[in-house]
Specification:
Length: about 200
């Protein structure tokens, strides 16, 4: 993987290999918080911040601590601990500077800790054997791709409130249909870049 430029990885992580729309990681908070655009933007920014920081730190921890000590098998526990620490930091910052966003995000802000998209970004970085800068590009692209997807679904959800959706499809059903259509649309970018 050393021949792929980090910017290509960033673009591919956002579009062709969108962590939410191609791997369906991080769906729980996507479905729950994808109803209001302002909440979706706030959660998207928090996920981008946590994904970038934890991917970079997890790269450093994995390559400078876990591998030299021969304890790579502890990567899940260590990665989740790093993610939990950063989510706690984000939660304190959001509560201090934007109480309304903190209220809107509710339980989903601390649940970023167990957002499988963030853990998936760190694990894909290891599986694909990325360099430091490739990992940083992957983390930023994965976070931005997730944020893009949740902002798109929030905008569509706001439009759907004024549409006549048949009763059996109202709510979660139409959200899943729209998410599937978004995933198909993002598959149209597949020929641009391939990173796996």
């Amino acid at each position: 993987m050393s021949d792929i430029h980090p910017l290509i990885i960033l673009l591919a992580a956002m579009l062709t290999n969108n962590i939410l729309l191609s791997n369906f990681l991080g769906l729980c908070s996507f479905l729950a918080c994808g109803k209001q655009l302002d909440t979706a933007v706030g959660l998207g920014i928090a996920v981008v911040f946590v994904t970038v920081c934890t991917t970079v730190i997890n790269y450093l921890v994995y390559h400078s601590l876990l591998i030299p000590l021969g304890i790579e098998h502890l990567q899940f526990i260590v990665f989740i601990a790093v993610i939990a620490a950063f989510v706690q930091l984000v939660e304190m910052i959001v509560e201090r500077f934007s109480p309304s966003l903190y209220y809107h995000l509710g339980i989903f802000l601390p649940l970023i800790t167990v957002n499988c998209a963030i853990l998936g970004a760190s694990l894909f970085m290891i599986i694909r054997d990325y360099s430091f800068w490739q990992s940083a590009g992957w983390g930023l692209g994965a976070g931005l791709g997730w944020a893009l997807a949740i902002c798109l679904i929030a905008g569509i959800q706001q439009r759907l409130r004024f549409s006549s959706v048949p009763k059996p499809l109202a709510g979660l059903a139409i959200t899943m249909i729209v998410t599937g259509l978004m995933a198909l649309a993002f598959m149209g970018f597949t020929g641009m870049a391939k990173i796996q």
